[in-house]
Specification:
Number of helices: 3
Structural class: alpha+beta
Strand content: 15-25%
Number of domains: 2
Number of strands: 4
């Protein structure tokens, strides 16, 4: 009935990591609504294992909503500024 396949794609990320906008006619995407939770012990473990949190995480944030305190090994996120791009994955 249609000249081309009709596709509906659903994504849970506001930035649409599965590219539903580009790959479908009816894309649906739901932004994250909860505050981002940080496990401070795991952040410290990553920092202690040699991961440069500032360079590899904070500097890659498109909205600059993250702050890193290397002395305290503390990562904070301003949820109001975060667009849930999943930069930490």
């Amino acid at each position: 009935m249609f000249p081309y396949k009709s596709k509906i794609k659903i994504a849970g990320c506001p930035n649409d990591c599965v590219a539903s906008v580009a790959r479908s006619i009816f894309p649906l995407s739901a932004p994250g609504v909860n505050n981002i939770r940080i496990n401070p012990d795991e952040v410290a473990n990553y920092a202690n294992s040699g991961l440069d949190i500032q360079a590899e995480v904070v500097n890659l944030c498109p909205t600059n909503c993250m702050k890193w305190d290397p002395a305290a090994k503390n990562l904070t996120i301003d949820d109001a500024e975060c667009n849930r791009c999943i930069a930490l994955h």
